[in-house]
Amino acid sequence: MRVAAALIDLADTLVADFDPADFLYRVAEHCMDLLDIGDAGVMLALPGTGPLRLVATTSEQVRLVELFELDAREGPCFTAYHDAVPVDHTDLTTSRRWPEFSVRARGAGYLSVHASPILLRKETIGVLNLFRRVPGALSEADRHLARALADATAISLLQQTTLDHHRTLSAQLQGALDTRTVIEQAKGYLTSHHAIDPDTAFQRLRCHARHHQMRIADLAREVVEGTVALPFPPSTEEGRPHDGKTL
């Protein structure tokens, strides 16, 4: 039932105010909910132009690892994108294939990675990056489900229109990248002004946007511009850890 609900949610994109950035965060969250992983990230590239860019993550830790991978141009996610095949890095403590990536990912607490390409027919438009805190490969069931989630992501991005799909996809992905920038700015603003960590800042943005039925990009812009102030629990203001899942 959870798998069916996730696929239905990802298919429900034919709405006037479709937000690609929010959609891609939901993709990452569904990966976390359904698969035996510790964190997830989504990378996308504009068709035919590249480069591969990070657009959604489930934590600050995985965001930094993913950005390092793109900068170093090495790692299972980078390889899955260019080879258009799923890639497993089952033990970060022993593999020498991607030494710099392995050291960085291991330092963040990850011990294995599975990367599943997001395919648009014969073209790779991105990658689902699945990080685990234990060594070993994903189960066969999880591998198939990761493939299904990657396919659902590609289909949902395309079904916005029956017109020139490359032009439409490029606009959607560029919008997602632009939104990612303003969200990071809002996270930085909240982190510096409320003495909280980036993950807590993002959870507050997500919760406030959902509660008030706002697009997260619109809320992030208002936070950066200073036109809206998010309420924070006393424990958060004092800098103590706060579990975003309970908000």
Automatic annotation (TrEMBL):
Domain ANTAR: start-end pairs: 163-224
Taxonomic superkingdom: Bacteria
Coiled-coil residue windows: none
Keywords: Kinase, Transcription, Transcription regulation, Transferase
InterPro entries: ANTAR (IPR005561), CheY-like_superfamily (IPR011006), GAF (IPR003018), GAF-like_dom_sf (IPR029016), GAF_ANTAR (IPR012074), WH-like_DNA-bd_sf (IPR036388)
Listed name of the protein: ANTAR domain-containing protein
Source organism of this protein record: Streptomyces ochraceiscleroticus
